[in-house]
Design a protein that fits this description.
The structure holds 2 protein chains of 2 kinds. By secondary structure, chain A is α/β, with parallel strands linked by helices. In chain A, strand 7 (340-346), helix 16 (352-362) and strand 8 (369-375) form a beta-alpha-beta unit. Chain B has helices at residues 36-41, 53-63, 84-104, 143-160, 163-217, and strands at 13-14, 31-35, 67-78, 109-120, 123-132, 136-141, 220-223. In chain B, the strands form 2 sheets. Chain B has a 4-stranded mixed sheet. Chain B has a two-stranded antiparallel ribbon with strand order 1-3. The longest helix of chain B is centred in the last third of the chain and has 55 residues, at 163-217. Strand 19 of chain A pairs antiparallel with strand 3 (67-78) of chain B, so a sheet runs across the interface.
Amino acid sequence: MKKPRFRQLLQGLAVLTQFFPFTWLYRRIYALAVRLCVRRLQRIRGVAAIYLRRGLASGRPLYGLSDIDLLVMVDNNQPSRVRASVLYQYELLRRLIPMLPEGELALYDFEEFRTLYEQSPFYRHRFEQGRRHWQRLYGEDIFRNLPPPLPLEEECCLALQELSPAWYYLAQELTESEARPPFVRRYVAYKSLAEAARALVVSRGEDPGISRESALQRATAQYPELSARLSKVQSLRRHLLSRKPVPVDDLLETFFRLTRTALAENSPGNGVRRVLRLQPLPPAVFPLPGFAEALATVREACAALKEMERAVLLPRLRFDSVAELGMDLEELAGATMDALDLVVIGQGMPPAERLRRFNSILDPLQPLVNPFFCDLEAGVAVALRPLPGRVVKTPAWDPEFFACLSSTQPLGHNLEVAAALEVVRPFPRADSFDQRARTLLALFHQREVFQITPRSYFTLFWEAGRGAWMAAQARQPGDLDVPVTSAQVLEALVSLTPAAEPTLRQIYREYCREAGDRPPEALRYVNWARWYALHLEELLFSPGQLNLNPPPPPRTELSISVAMATRNRAQLLGTALQSLVDQVRPPDQVVVVDNASGDDTPAVALSFARRLNLILLREETVGIPQARNKALKHCTGDLVAFLDDDCKAEPHWLLELELPFLKDPHIGAVGGSLLPLAGQSELVAQFYDSRMSADWGKSRGVIPHDHPDSR
Amino acid sequence: MIIQILGELKEEGYLAKGRHPTVAPFFAGANMAIRRHALEEIGGYDPQCVTGEDCDICARLSAANWELYMRRDSVVFHKNPATLKRLLQQWYGYGRYHPYVFAKHNEPAVEIYARLKRPISGERYRCLFYRRSPWAVVLFLTNFLMLHLALFGTGVAWLLGGSLLSWAGLGVTMMLAVCYAWPDLRHWGLRRGAAFAGLRYLADLALFVGAFIGGLHQRMLYFSAPVD
């Protein structure tokens, strides 16, 4: 961890020297860094525009603490290749410029930019702000193709969306994990509250381009009851280097009051209203794996929080997450999991110290249980451990959230669980359900969807299933039945496509297994899930004849041929073939190519013929490629695994090699680890061993990494 | 490919798609499984690749839009060469066909690569200079090469009689030699570290010579990177 310390040192120096000659110097350094970035990035072919966002572009940056946030727009043709180059260049620049934040490069192509703008209120607001604040550094005007700016009233409503990111900053105080220097903590806390104040005054009709400082001043003038608290916030910024601890409790209370004021004065957006009937949650068979232990942990956490009146467990329902999160696979999967919100109800925020302890007890359950603190009177809930997405909730925005709270079943102690209920919920557009289902199902066409973790993948699958079920129902008038847990989604899908019932049950069994931490088998039915999702898409959205009989699902086992080329190593060959006999998942065929050997290789190979399905070939031209090509001609398996004659396979070798192929049809080749054979004591072998164990010390994995010359 | 280091592949998961096949990651040929129809689609192994067939196959699969996946839990134990002679032969052999694979996936050009301390998306080497030309020259600026350049410079300076210059050159050479041996010395102490560094030096030298000769066969000047 050398890097952050170096960075913190630089930051500390910069904060210490925030006066004239130095500030001038810092401004020059920042300008130089930005110019360097632009010069590197604009040279990539396919980059259409570069913008400077946020801190530096709007308001007064604090040189030293402010990051350089860039936005890069790429052309529509060949976006993936251009993206890779841009990210590579950005990584290179990051090694040189400490002000470039990790993973915060916004990278869009025009189509994506427009889709986000049109579909997601969150991004629409962001881009509207960008119209005003972002600086164009290079290229064309990216806002040219967007619809004209929103009328001011509508923008004022959107301003409240900013409360969520603002809370995100402050919530960093509620975790114990990282040790940030005090001036960073002060600055971030200040930023959070100033953003909240800005959201408040902008929603009251102030000019959206207002800076943080003046927003705070306006809020102080408009709300005299908050003025004492807000002046404390201003002093945070003024005395960044003060040694006094950050008054977290005070700040939490201030944020809560600001939020309450802001939300009380605004009405929810309009839209199509539909009645949703949520299915009851059976407390015994909860979606969480190991629910009994999880419940014990939750109880323990609640006991740590004395201010709590009661706590309610309820399903996390995010019907608009696709649009909101901009189809980011990882985040989407995290947001819509078989997960629970744990809502702690109390009067006034508990002290930060206790909230920290509460969070740390719940840590092992992340992200399956997400704690909220809710003040029912104020009608505001804030996430104690925010995931990306909406983290400040209000009755107007999240009716189901609060409907769940009012209708509950006791779960022992002061813990409750949400019961079945009906809510009326506005949806932004009439075809919201179709749009959502289509977007979710279309994800299964994408290659990237396989690259997320199996758990996220399955989550996405159940979410897509729920979306499809709701879309199918929404085509008829009347109430909508909403399945909540994955088990309920399963039943819904079975009733939708009875022909696919066995497949669905198998996928569900596999999902439960995976959720219970039994990973290897889990990959096996991933492909079935994809196949079913594509089938659903065809069923729901294809015009004309519906194909009610799904095609047979893909196989769950592939046949494997093992190809071995050998030359004059009869003894070693025996060991290698024996290791194939010992495989947990035996090979379906073994092809040994005798590459013009002069010893008793054929005899050794044939001695295994009874235990393996073995073919022995002879190739007179010496050379690995020739021998392997010869073997390939005689292989019949779906996969060809290559093993060298001087190697010995571990018993799980083939089983492990096969799994990725089952998971993702786009995978062409899978490679594994190579380790030195035990008990080689010669000088050279010792050299290899020593170098490998040196690397062992460096690598953080369980298994040391591969051999330098492993071929 | 050739210049990619297998040590970077310890992470489970999809291999990063290289921006160029010459620097893309690949995995070892002694432990891999390939979809049969993918292998048939790209036409099997290239019979001219006596070694380095695995980089070649990975680069071609990747170019044919197949994904490559590293499965760390699938383990094969490998027997190392037991004598110095075998070791040097082996590394000479690897070096000998580097240039062939390199030339196969790359047009003739003058190229200079520098080594990155930490790889970016699996790429260990960064192209500093690239210009297409009928004369193919490939140069990897590594400690190993710098050390020899400094040694060569010192020798020339000594022959020309510039005593001060030759002393300075000697100093630089010594410094580079320490840099070269440093990872081994750090992990294994002075005595074992020095022995292992010497062994590594021999292996690198064999690889370098092999690659240079292989380069001449391909009508290029190929100054290889040590595989470490």
